[in-house]
Design brief:
Blueprint: E1 2-7, E2 14-19, E3 23-29, E4 34-40, H1 42-47, E5 49-53, E6 56-60, E7 76-83, E8 89-94, E9 99-102, E10 105-113, E11 118-121, E12 124-131, E13 137-140, E14 143-150, E15 156-169, E16 175-179, E17 185-189, E18 195-199, E19 203-210, E20 215-218, E21 221-222, E22 230-235, E23 240-244
Parallel strand pairs: 2-6, 2-8, 3-7, 3-9, 8-10, 9-11, 10-12, 11-13, 12-14, 13-15, 14-15, 15-16, 15-17, 16-18, 17-22, 18-23, 19-21, 19-22, 20-23
Antiparallel strand pairs: 1-4, 4-7, 5-6
Length: 247
């Protein structure tokens, strides 16, 4: 079964998605209205709530946040096409379905999953937040004033990103960050997952500490001056690496 509905963007300030187990793909396209397309079994598609209220477009499964029986035979995929002119907020949450986002622009883009992978490609905004519990997070060509990435046990891998401020956190997942433009500050926390940061930098105010892991810097001059980019990394048993690259 399929549903295909469209919404004018005039008057809307936020797109909010809450899915309990369905897969979600949200991307910018050459359209003049927001399109929500759902495909799946009849009960799942019929139960999906799609509508606008208080300047918000809400796409929500009634099971979101409730106790789920994931062994039931059901499936649904939700696809949201957003006009390229969209410049407001986007908030999307999934519990056990993969989340994929690409080409989006907004004042704030916040994406999180519980036990599924998260993919983000070519996103830009004042604030971008990516979060997962046990799934991997992979981002490429992200641009933001503040980029926040968090995981508990999933892999965090950011490539070709631009951020004035980068915040990263993981318990046991590895963290790899590749910045392609100068930054102002980086704050990363880890427990047992290794951390690697590569960025165009020369002189940096650095504090990197790991209780039992190795700490390595390559191609950077470390200073205590306050008028240079700052890097703060703390870990328990993770290996830490800071690598300078050419811009």
């Amino acid at each position: 079964m399929e549903r295909n509905v469209h919404f004018e963007t005039a008057g809307l300030q936020d797109i909010v998605v809450h899915l309990a187990w369905a897969q979600l793909e949200i991307f910018a396209d050459d359209v003049d209205k927001i399109q929500v397309l759902a495909a799946g079994d009849e009960n799942s598609v019929t139960d999906l709530r799609v509508g606008t209220k208080d300047k918000v477009l809400l796409v929500e499964q009634p099971q979101y946040g409730l106790s789920l029986n994931l062994m039931e035979s059901r499936w649904m995929q939700v696809c949201i096409r957003v006009p390229r002119s969209w410049a407001h907020e986007i908030h999307a949450n999934t519990i056990s379905g993969m989340l994929s986002a690409r080409g989006l622009k907004g004042s704030a883009i916040v994406l999180d999953t519980i036990s599924a992978d998260l993919r983000a490609l070519r996103l830009s905004g004042k604030e971008i937040g990516l979060k997962t519990i046990s799934g991997d997070v992979r981002g490429e060509s992200l641009e933001a004033d503040t980029l926040s990435v968090r995981s508990v046990s999933g892999l965090l891998k950011m490539e070709d990103c631009k951020a004035k401020n980068l915040k990263g956190s993981s318990v046991s997942g590895e963290q790899t960050y590749g910045l392609s433009a100068p930054f102002q500050r980086v704050d990363i926390n880890a427990v047992s997952g290794d951390v690697a940061l590569a960025a165009p930098m020369a002189t940096v105010n650095v504090s990197m500490r790991s209780i039992s892991g190795r700490v390595r810097t390559e191609g950077v001059t470390i200073t205590e001056a306050e008028d240079v980019p700052a890097v703060r990394v703390t870990a328990v048993s993770a290996n830490l690496a800071l690598i300078a690259i050419k811009e």
